[in-house]
Amino acid sequence: MTPLNEAASGLEDVRRRMAEAAQRAGRRADSVHLIAASKTQPIAALQQLVDCGQTRFGESRMQEALVKIAHFAELGLEWHFIGHLQSKKARLVPGQFSWVHSIDSAGTAARIGAEADRLGVSVNLLLQVNIADDPAKHGVPESGLFALAETILAQPHAGIRLCGLMTIGRADAPADVTRKNFARLRELLEQCRRRFGSEFRELSMGMSGDYEMAIEEGATLVRVGSALFGARA
Ligand SMILES: *Cc1c(COP(=O)(O)O)cnc(C)c1O
Description:
Elements: H1 3-24, E1 33-37, H2 43-51, E2 56-59, H3 62-71, E3 78-81, E4 99-103, H4 106-119, E5 123-128, H5 145-153, E6 160-166, H6 175-196, E7 202-204, H7 211-216, E8 221-224, H8 226-229
Helix pairs in contact: 1-2
């Protein structure tokens, strides 16, 4: 297989496995969206997926992402910022990205909100929860989740919509621990929904190694990189 069609055949396989996982969980296939985690991938690899109908892409490095977004500007793709967002880069989000999965501070949300309001655009925000208590990961600890949500919801910005939670599974965790963490994130989403309202409905969880399990546990957004593109260089 040539490198150029590797992404396309990866996409077919991932879409099939996603549909099968949804079916096993008694969920509709269209209740889960695939975010192609395309960081470090060249434009040509993204183009392959675009040609196969993929519209949602996740990037985690701002400068690299802005080049790609500009390249595909005519196509109406949906860009998700999934990596750690430095607060000084937050103002670059509105107008470029329609989703940020990695909010773990009220200050970053406020900066996005202020710029979104200025531009008259809107950005969907997910709170990143460090559910596995992984010291190597960003994210709000479970104990701080409701307070952070409350603070952000109290901000006067029309341009940000807090709509769910995200977590990154711990790479070294056994499968049953990862499954428990996914189930816990879903429980936290339900608690947020009861406290703060029905806007809380998105669960971003699952990567190449565990997206099927994440779908079985309720993921609505899965972020898949290497299973689509092959291992990153
Ligand atoms: C890179 C990345 C992914 C995708 O990881 P793979 O294991 O390659 O599927 C998912 N989420 C985040 C936040 C990432 O940075």
